[in-house]
User: Fold these one by one.
Assistant:
Number 1:
Amino acid sequence: MAHPLTLTPDLDAIHARLADDDAHVLTAPDLTDALIGVVSDRGQARALYSTRRIVDALVGYGLGYDAAVEHFSAHVEVLSLGPGTPVFLEDL
């Protein structure tokens, strides 16, 4: 069953917005399908990723659902790589 809220982001517009920003914005090339937007954090653009779509991608790479959620929580969500670090929408 499809998730009741399905966003179809304009990836070209998102990438253009990220490219236009003067500051360095970190993205995850393997998770393009999970990129859903751009947010501004005190003037710094940051990539916005869907937690649900990241978990779906991890399941697609062969992890079980619970293992994918655990991997996201332990290894992705906790990353802090400076001002351009992506943010994650909790939409599980």
Number 2:
Amino acid sequence: MDDDACAFLGFFVSPPPELERQAVDAAQAGLDAGRPLRTPGGTADCCATTS
């Protein structure tokens, strides 16, 4: 594939540059509102139990 074809495809497969900033801002807004940070398992860190 030539450089132009790669650049064309790269445009569509790359996330928008502002996506990470929007995600961080959304997470911070939730924390500022008092919502607990969630783990990938869906439980709040503050409520996790250990055995």
Number 3:
Amino acid sequence: MQPRELFRFLLSRVGSDWTDVHREAVSQLDDEEPIFWLVARNEAEKRASVRPGENSYYSGLYIDENNGLREQLDIRKALPES
């Protein structure tokens, strides 16, 4: 799975149980590290947005206290309309 596909997959699973999301993502990857480019593992890693490439921005994700995957900020709503 390419990073862009992974990020879209993760964003499409916001609100889902992290254990299930992680298991499904890892099954498609050689290395799980790219998951954590977007998903914060702890409070210090939380970011409103992530810029993995020159022209791409994604909402930062984190795991809430109920083990749910959550969006730090919905970047699509925060950007001005063109």
Number 4:
Amino acid sequence: MKMNDMIQQMMFGNEAPMPTARHGLGVATYDGTIYKIGGGPTPRLTTCANYEIFQPNNQIFER
């Protein structure tokens, strides 16, 4: 493993992938939970009504 890859993994880690890929979403945290809201499938003015809740302790996304 390259040193740069090791440093990045130590700093950011690998988490579960988002169920819905999107661009320009809003993200907030509260009480150890990450909330992902809005955004769209492509850059610019596309939007969607999806929201997802990620619980890092058990690597689970909820919709």
